[in-house]
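Late entry, evening session. Most of the bench is empty. Finally got around to the prediction I had been postponing all week. Sequence below, unchanged from the version circulated by S.P.
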Amino acid sequence: MRHEILFQPIRIGPVEIKNRLVLAPTNTNGVSSSRAFIADPEWANKVWEDQAENIQKCRRCNRCIYELFASRPVRCTVNKKAGRERFDLPELLGI
């Protein structure tokens, strides 16, 4: 029995942003921007509002990754608040 495997390519790494569009190669079905969201949690909002020039860009130093692998809270050289956030869950959920 033969099975066909469908591969859905996802772009990992830096992408170009122009006129509210995230530009990636044409064979890309998605974009993974984990470090970008750690460096600037408002990344998607800034792209949507055509404010890409105001995005705090990830330096790709991997400090966030090193901290995770060491089982420590995330830290970021660009976003000093990363890993130090405190949330009031009932308030976030509107309870």
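Two things to note before I forget:
The longest helix spans residues 63-69.
The helical segments are 34-39, 43-48, 63-69, 89-93.
Will write this up properly tomorrow.
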